[in-house]
From TrEMBL:
Organism: Zymobacter palmae
InterPro entries in alphabetical order: 6-phosphogluconolactonase_DevB (IPR005900), 6PGL (IPR039104), Glc/Gal-6P_isomerase (IPR006148), NagB/RpiA_transferase-like (IPR037171)
Task of the protein: Hydrolysis of 6-phosphogluconolactone to 6-phosphogluconate.
Catalytic reactions on record: 6-phospho-D-glucono-1,5-lactone + H2O = 6-phospho-D-gluconate + H(+)
Domain of life: Bacteria
Family membership: Belongs to the glucosamine/galactosamine-6-phosphate isomerase family. 6-phosphogluconolactonase subfamily.
Pathway(s) per entry: Carbohydrate degradation; pentose phosphate pathway; D-ribulose 5-phosphate from D-glucose 6-phosphate (oxidative stage): step 2/3
Protein name, entry field: 6-phosphogluconolactonase
Record EC number: 3.1.1.31
Length: 226
């Protein structure tokens, strides 16, 4: 139950956790395993913490990331580290987490291994949760990335990407096509700047200007908090 005394970000996180849990329960009633794909950043922390407390057969749930920075898990920019601190705890500790990093020096070198691993997951994903940057990027599909066209059009599930605007030199991301291979899509945002950007993105069609637009031709549920 959502506590109305909590901050809007926490309430939205709790509401999203309830929606995701319901989706996973629905799919697990019909299939042996379910796949949940989440995004990193500071916005989803209340969602992660709420979902970690939910009663689910977590041992039948595979969890992975929409994208990942090619940094060690101990790095403050690691989405894997974020999930382990805030989500893969409590009841969700039983989930099968599949990280998007390897021991290779670069994301480009690790793509083949991670592609083989990802193809063993329970596609289509039950849920994909996307974030969005102030520049309209989602996952690691950046407007200024040399690999943007590939990310938007390739049939490959994963690709290594770079972009001048990225803090880390290298990332790995699921492609647009693979992220669309899901039963449900949620966009989780917070703050006035993200609301303004989403409004701009929703009002146009050029997916290369704002890559988040590339997911607006499929049903999505928006969870936004001030």
């Amino acid at each position: 139950m959502i506590d109305m005394q909590q901050t809007p970000k926490v309430r939205i996180g709790q509401a999203l956790a309830e929606a995701v849990a319901d989706a996973l329960r629905t799919d697990l009633a019909q299939q042996e395993r379910a796949l949940l794909i989440v995004s990193g950043g500071s916005t989803p922390v209340p969602f992660f913490e709420a979902l970690s407390q939910v009663d689910l057969p977590w041992e039948r749930v595979d969890v992975t990331l929409a994208d990942e920075r090619w940094v060690p898990e101990t790095d403050s920019d690691s989405n894997t580290g974020l999930l382990k601190r805030h989500f893969l705890q409590n009841k969700a500790a039983k989930a099968n987490f599949v990280p998007l990093t390897t021991q290779h020096a670069t994301a480009a070198e690790g793509v083949a291994e991670l592609t083989a691993v990802s193809q063993k997951l329970s596609w289509p994903a039950s849920v994909v949760i996307l974030g969005m940057g102030d520049d309209g990027h989602t996952a690691s599909l950046f407007p200024d990335s040399p690999q943007l066209e590939e990310g938007l059009t390739t049939d490959a599930p994963l690709l290594a990407v770079t972009a001048p605007s990225m803090k880390t030199k290298s990332r790995i991301t699921f492609s647009r096509k693979q992220l669309k291979n899901a039963r449900r899509h949620f966009i989780h945002l917070s703050g006035a700047a993200k609301r303004e950007m989403f409004t701009k993105a929703f009002g146009g069609d050029d997916i290369r200007e704002y890559p988040i637009r590339s997911f607006m031709d499929t049903p999505v549920a928006l969870y936004w908090a001030p």
